[in-house]
Design goal:
With 161 residues, the chain is α+β, with helices and mostly antiparallel strands. The protein has 2 helices and 9 strands. The protein has helices at 2-22, 123-152; strands spanning 26-32, 37-39, 51-56, 59-65, 68-71, 76-78, 84-86, 95-102, 108-119. The longest helix is centred in the last third of the chain and has 30 residues, at 123-152. Residues 1-22 form the signal peptide.
Amino acid sequence: MAERQNIASIAIISLFLVSVSGSEGAVTVLATAGSTVILDLVNVTVSEHNDIKWTKGPIRIAQIKWQNKTNATQQIEILANGSLQLRNVQKQDNGFYKAEVYDKDGRLSLNKTFQLIVTEQTHSQTVGAILIPLAVLACLVLVAFRIRSKIQNREPSISES
């Protein structure tokens, strides 16, 4: 129960942070450990002449310059629209990520900041991920047996006599 309250509190705080920091251009993104996250540059048109830099704090983690991509790790990828994809995020990935998009003349055309908050997967989420598919499978098996028994126990109709 305490885990659910903590998750609900994080969600409420995150919504508050998005609304507060949204006016300054920052976006808060929540993720569960082990998931894939996309820090989305919405409504950005990327051309072959753009220079896109992604940093986490002061460290450059990815860049596209004249269509040449460089990524700090295989966990990180800049997508076709300039958004950043992070695979298998963990608690150490928490932090502020900044995207800078420069036009062909080297002028800054977009500067956007994201705050990534990674939460651990709770025991109840793990159990739910296992039990729900098992329950669905059990229901399907029961339905199949019920249909089979009705077909086997069917009385012959008048036309079959």
